# Entry
Amino acid sequence: MENSGLVRFENVGLRYGLGPEVLRDLTFRIEPNSFQFLTGPSGAGKTTLLRLLFLSLRPTRGLITQFGHDVATLSKDAIATLRRRIGIVFQDFRLLDHMSTYENVALPLRVMGRPEDSYREEVIELLSWVGLGERMWALPPVLSGGEKQRAAIARAVIARPQLLLADEPTGNVDPALGQRLLRLFVELNKSGTSVVIATHDIALMDQYDARRLVLHDGRLHVYD
Amino acid sequence: MIELARAETAGPRVVAVPGPPPRTNTALVPRNSIAGRALIAIVAIMTFLASLTTGAVILVSHTASEWQSDVAREVTIQIIPAAGRDAEADVARAASIADHFPGIEAVQAYTREESTKLLEPWLGTGLSLTDLPVPRLIVLKLSRDAAPDLTRLRTLLAGQVPGAVLDDHRGWIDRMRAMSSTAIGIGIAILLLVIAATALSVSFATRGAMATNKTVIEVLHFVGAKNAFIARNFQRHFLLLGLEGGAIGGGAAMLLFLLAAGLSRWFSTSAGGQQTSALFGSFSLGLTGYAAVLFQVLLIAGVTAWTSRQTVNRTLETID
# Structure
């Protein structure tokens, strides 16, 4: 794992069906404790690359190694187990409307089979930390866009993932909240989580000096 | 994370935590959704119809076999009056032979008046039949345990009572057997069609209800739930929905049969009640009938659970 980092892509290509390759010859690594922005014009394949990183897509060619495992050789159960070491924040939040904010955030711990009393304090503290302490029993339909965003982020980080992926995490919030969310990601990174933020918000990227992965025409350009 | 929270606050800190958590362990699959309630209604209706069909087939089958067994347990000796013979003596002689014959449980010889009365529906009342050679009947009830040797009895009668004819109702039984077999066959065919329609409609309704849960499947998948865990949760949820709908439909059908059986007993003394009971029996399904309805409820709930599992697996296939 020391040699391959958290994630290693070697000449990875991806096409949907018989169509043209949407991602071509991607070769890069994501190191432990690293912070990077993934950017590029709309339709450049940022979400597709995030899905590859999240193991919900398999490449049509090339090699992807995550946490020291060649993902092509992993069973579905092994992928599910590996996915527990990755947190993801979706652009559309994907919160479950029939569960309270508390339950949504606790979901990754619940599916691991942990009893509720073992994580209650942890979840309540995280919710307070992201400013949702008073909204923890509210259902998602009554949360504002920013509250949903923070709940989605809290859910992604509750299991202390080694890799955090966020798809346009500031797309639905005002600049002030965007800054606060960025601070949250930076703090998570300082505590040992590698962070990949997919965004085309130049202002956000200018606020923090980090590595940039730029997708253009299906190819990746890395700016350290 | 706790250390992080102490190091820096990204949002307003909330010190006071509200009282006991009101929702900490909500079912992963949403309950009480509109689609879920619609599925319960469909399962209930289809189970009710399937249970009615099953009950009807069982009733027809019971009644037909009762008819057959009643008729098959009876044979008749017919004494045709002949010139120069004493009909009363022939009847007495034939009755005595039958009475002492092994395998005969009861002998009932019809008197001349009784035999004449049997013709009344065709010939009307008030007609003097004294001069007509009205055949005399002796009805023999056969024993359930040991079937009598009817060929030997026929030979005995032919030898000792000329003009006595033994009728074992073979032709009538054969026709009745053919008729009841056809009725039961048609009933089973209808039952199979109803069960197939039930399985299909429940399966489609389950898929419809599952469509509203696609996000739940995706989110569980993305937070690291294993496929078997997701499928197990959905299967359990839909099994309960199926059992609830099945219990409503099957229970209503059972109640209906119990009510019909009670009413049938209540009206059994009236002429109409007797006729209905002769045609359809007592409307009592018996333990086997109720067990069949119960099995149907479990089968339909099983179909619901199995379909949900298949749909979850298919959805998971499309996610990755």
About this structure: The helical segments of chain A are 46-53, 76-83, 101-111, 116-129, 145-157, 175-190, 202-206.
